[in-house]
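Researcher: Re-running this chain for the archive, since the previous output was lost when a drive failed. Same request as before.
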Amino acid sequence: MTNKKENYFKELTEVKGLADTVKVKNKFNYLPWAVAVKALRLVHPDATIEILRFDGMPFLKTELGYFVEVRVSVFSGDGERIGIVHHTCLMPVLNHINKPIEKPNSFDINRSIQRATCKAIAQHGLGINLFTDEPLDDLEEDKPDAIEVYNKHIEKNQPANVSEADLDQADKNKALDKARACKTLKALGTIRKTYGEYEQDQDYYQQIKIIYKALKAKQPDTMPDF
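Model: Regenerated structure tokens:
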């Protein structure tokens, strides 16, 4: 058993270079599971990852859909107080747009296990900063944004009960959607110029930075902007 710093969580939050490995797919940012596992094991080689089973199967079927669960255990301590910290992630089996899959196949189950592994690892600190701005599209996709509500009321000559802050945030979200859809740094640069004033918002700026680094990894010869 390897002795670790007492504040192992802080140690794992300080692991560098994860942002450079973030991928963008279907508007969502994600950390490849293999990157997360490798980074964890380099710092804590004695960490364990367990896929929980339900009646012998690596998934749980319920009336609400299918779920998978992963437990990640990390040894922590200062040499005198050594303990094991467990974190689990119960993950619904979702498709590429974060919607539940009614009849998942083996590939869908495996992909959800990989996503649950990343999130369970993040609960220990490694990569958790990448999830702090995680979009809640699966919860809010069916809810019209502030701009749509505002425009519908204007068309009907009715007062719209929408704040300027809500309108501003809705516009930022649309800007981020356009940024995530960019295939080149040049295209992202156009988005940054168009919505440049939003980069004063730290949350918005961090999302743009993640998108930039993902594109930069695919175009290493391009001059950096950050």
